[in-house]
């Protein structure tokens, strides 16, 4: 989907794009032009027991030993509560999935 300055007069209201994983390829400084492209990702769910699991996302074909993963920790160890924290405290694609258990989460 491309939104360019020529179209903004024909769009009534905000434009909403719903997807779980989006890659913004081009963001004009004036926010007049945005190109959004859907990307397929490899996803891995690792259940380690005790209500703790890890969820990793990277581009398809990425090795689990490469620093290209976005990883979150899902903590359901307290009944009725889900706590989601991110490796290194952010959702950047810069972690090694094989190291999921030893990474710092916040």
Which key phrases capture this entry?
globular; disordered N terminus; 106 residues; 5-stranded antiparallel β-sheet; 3-stranded antiparallel β-sheet; mainly beta; 8 strands
Assign a percent range to the helix content. Answer: under 10%
Distance between the termini: 34 Å
**How many structurally independent domains?**
2
Structural class: mainly beta
User: Roughly what fraction of the amino acids lie in strands?
Assistant: 35-45%
Tally of DSSP helical segments: 0
- SS elements, strand count: 8
Taking pLDDT < 50 over at least 5 consecutive residues as the criterion, the unreliable ranges are: 1-35
Radius of gyration, whole Å: 18 Å
Largest sheet: 5 strands, antiparallel
* Gross geometry: globular
H/E series: EEEEEEEE
- Which assembly state applies to the chains in this document? single chain
Question: What integer is the average pLDDT?
Answer: 76
């Amino acid at each position: 989907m491309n939104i360019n300055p020529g179209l903004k007069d024909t769009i009534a209201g905000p434009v909403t794009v719903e997807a779980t994983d989006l890659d913004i390829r081009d963001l004009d400084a004036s926010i007049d032009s945005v190109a959004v492209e859907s990307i397929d990702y490899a996803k891995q769910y690792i259940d380690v027991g005790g209500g703790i699991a890890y969820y990793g996302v990277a581009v398809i074909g990425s090795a689990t030993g490469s620093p290209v993963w976005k990883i979150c920790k899902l903590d359901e160890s307290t009944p009725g509560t889900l706590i989601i924290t991110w490796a290194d405290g952010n959702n950047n694609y810069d972690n090694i999935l094989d190291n999921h258990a030893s990474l710092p989460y916040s």
